[in-house]
Design a protein that fits this description.
The chain is of the alpha/beta class. Helix content is 56%, strand content 11%. The protein binds CO-5-methoxybenzimidazolylcobamide (B1M). Keywords: Cobalt, Metal-binding.
Length: 210
């Protein structure tokens, strides 16, 4: 079994203590950061499929999520290039009612790497909290909303519309997450959409520099 396959197997088994070491070993073996990350993302998809099939339950999903987060910690210094923040502040959060944060954390990392200062509000973030944070921070140029549940797509749309109607200006809004399509994103009134963390950073830059 290759190191990447071991990472995947242990992640899917929710072994949070073993995954970081295996990720480091995969790096030591010369495996690429993106290859390891994409393998871990695929494993989370596999865990989701098992959940849908009734083969695993919420606790197993939670353990896999913890293992993924620990693995990403090892990759973080290699994903974030430490360039100075020059594109302003990005306020990011997972929308109200939604507790998924792995994708949001990856997006935050990539956006930071693209040159933003990132203020991460965490999960289950209401429109009021986004607005409070926009007011509390200087030079907010981007607001990023993540959502993973079809049931919280409504909260995403409401949040974008409330933020846009708040009268606050000077920033663009970007949305994304597994159930979000560009078509749905357009109905929210957001300025931009991205399907994954890498393209979120590219889109963020594009929106702010336009
Ligand atoms: Co949940 N869950 N979960 N879960 N969970 C999903 C999302 C699900 C697809 C599983 C399934 O049924 N197959 C399903 C949603 C179905 C639907 O709505 N259609 C689901 C469900 C049903 C639930 C509960 C309702 C289960 C229950 O209680 N019965 C419950 C809801 C809780 C809540 O939020 N209120 C629940 C709970 C949980 C845990 C808490 C146990 C845990 C999350 C822990 C955590 O995040 N810390 C969990 C997990 C781990 C998953 C799966 C298995 C993995 C999610 C993940 O981290 N993926 C997931 C199955 C799956 O994804 N296939 C599932 C890896 C991550 C890197 O991908 O987040 O998609 P993702 O991010 C991507 C892109 O979407 C994009 O970039 C990232 C990659 O580069 N992206 C953006 C994300 N945000 C973006 C923002 C952007 C741009 C791009 O711009 C701002």
């Amino acid at each position: 079994m290759s190191k990447i396959e071991e990472v995947k197997a242990m992640l899917e088994a929710g072994k949070a203590k073993l995954v970081p070491g295996l990720v480091q070993e995969a790096l030591n073996d010369g495996k690429g950061v993106q290859d390891i990350l994409q393998a871990m993302i695929a494993s989370m998809g596999a865990v989701g499929d098992k959940f849908s099939a009734g083969e695993v339950y919420v606790p197993e999903m939670l353990m896999a999520a913890k293992a993924m987060s620990k693995g990403v910690e090892v990759l973080k210094p290699l994903l974030v290039d430490g360039s100075a923040s020059t594109l302003g502040t990005c306020i990011i959060g997972t929308v109200e009612g939604d507790l998924h944060d792995i994708g949001k954390n990856l997006v935050a990392m990539m956006i930071e790497s693209a040159g933003f200062k990132v203020v991460d509000l965490g999960v289950d973030v209401s429109a009021a909290k986004f607005i409070e944070a926009i007011k509390a921070n200087n030079d907010v140029t981007l607001v990023a909303l993540s959502g993973l549940l079809t049931t919280t797509m409504v909260a995403m749309k409401d949040s974008v519309q409330t933020i846009k109607a708040s009268g606050l200006t000077g920033f663009k809004v970007i949305v994304g997450g597994a159930p979000i399509s560009s078509e749905f994103a357009a109905t929210t009134g957001a300025d931009g959409f991205a399907p994954d963390a890498g393209s979120a950073a590219v889109k963020a830059k594009e929106l702010v520099m336009a």
